[in-house]
Amino acid sequence: MYQKSQTTKKLLLIGGGHSHAIVLRSHINNPLPNINLSLISENLETPYSGMLPGHIAGFYTHDECHINLQHLTNLAGAKFYINRVINLDLNNNRVFCENLPPIDFDILSIDIGSIPASLTVTGAEEYAIAAKPVKRLLAEWEKLCNEIQDYQSSVRIGIVGGGAGGVELALAMQAKLTNERELEIHLYNRDRNLMSSYDYSIQKLMKKVLLRRNIKLHLGETVSKLEKKSKQGNIDKINLTCESGLSLECDRIFWVTQASAPQWLTTTGLTTDKKGFILINNKLQSVSHPHIFASGDIATMVNHPHPKAGVFAVRQGKPLFNNLRRYIFGETLKSYIPQRDYLSLIGTGDGKAVANRGNFTLPPSRLLWFWKDWIDRKFMQQFK
């Protein structure tokens, strides 16, 4: 049995990612004792990554694939600061935001996700639409869907990044727009293989699926420059150039490259890996500051590194909540060991999905999509 903590502590959550959404929901059901709980997030809602491709393909509404953080924090009796964090003062336990006075904390947890890497490519920051923040991605996608009826010619979309995110995005966009207007989707990847962190069996299968859907693949191509080429009405045409000299004019370019960490983390004093992600131990604690926890894409487990995927952020939510509770009571924290092989259900945008776990892969089927849909809706139902 837990003993009640004698002093009130300030627990501050930075970021409204999957893990923190689960912490808030767990606090509603089983309140942490003597805690002033607060959340800082740039947005009122957080997207659930498992349903985003389905939303882009038209299977889910906006509300069905977003968690309402305002609603969660209200139910949890927590303060909600809608703002952007720009730095930490770990000597005095303070968080600095863009438009707020410093916020004090006793215990801090960080779950801010990641941002796409390589926006340093010439013209990318100005002309590419990054996969994150998702709010801007969805706004640009809706704008494109509305503009298509004014296009005088075929629509050409470039997607940079051939990981699972880029592949799913290409299939979802193709499924949504294929009947609207003559459409070309070009997928660029610097590696010769798609989805390089996955087994070869699913790499081979997804390549076949993409080609069957007439998505143009440019493998082994590194994008080196984006620039505005011409204008058709109110629509800018963007020229994409690769190191090989390959060049293509596109109506929109979406950037879905490997994950990277926000720059401000490098100035905080937290120990990070070479890419700037917070290094954490098996208890989900910072290896340099034990009163600071981290989870999701922004964290790298020292002993159990794994891909930056939403499935891990979801699974870290409950262990994070339990260890926050134990830390408050001064009890021994429990280790979280992520699965080495995990099930991936990847939608193909046409009411089907493929399944992969390790070297076991199943081809697209409607049954797998129904299974994925059931899992995703069940996850979201706990926040309604």
Describe this structure in words.
This protein has 384 residues and is α/β, with parallel strands linked by helices. Helix content is 28%, strand content 29%. The protein has helices at 18-29, 52-57, 69-76, 124-127, 134-147, 164-177, 200-212, 310-329, 366-381; strands at residues 9-14, 35-41, 45-47, 66-68, 79-82, 85-89, 94-97, 103-104, 107-110, 115-116, 129-130, 155-160, 183-189, 216-219, 223-232, 235-242, 247-250, 252-255, 259-260, 278-280, 292-294, 299-301, 344-347, 353-357, 360-365. The strands form 8 sheets. A 5-stranded parallel beta sheet has the order 5-2-1-9-21, with helices on one face. A 5-stranded parallel beta sheet has the order 11-18-12-13-14. The chain has a 3-stranded antiparallel beta sheet with strand order 6-7-8, with no helix packed on it. Helix 1 (18-29) runs parallel beside helix 3 and helix 1 (18-29) crosses helix 8. The protein is globular and about 70 Å long.
What topology does this entry show?
Elements: E1 9-14, H1 18-29, E2 35-41, E3 45-47, H2 52-57, E4 66-68, H3 69-76, E5 79-82, E6 85-89, E7 94-97, E8 103-104, E9 107-110, E10 115-116, H4 124-127, E11 129-130, H5 134-147, E12 155-160, H6 164-177, E13 183-189, H7 200-212, E14 216-219, E15 223-232, E16 235-242, E17 247-250, E18 252-255, E19 259-260, E20 278-280, E21 292-294, E22 299-301, H8 310-329, E23 344-347, E24 353-357, E25 360-365, H9 366-381
Parallel strand pairs: 1-2, 1-9, 2-5, 9-21, 11-18, 12-13, 12-18, 13-14, 20-22
Antiparallel strand pairs: 3-4, 6-7, 7-8, 10-19, 15-16, 16-17, 23-24, 24-25
Helix pairs in contact: 1-3, 1-8
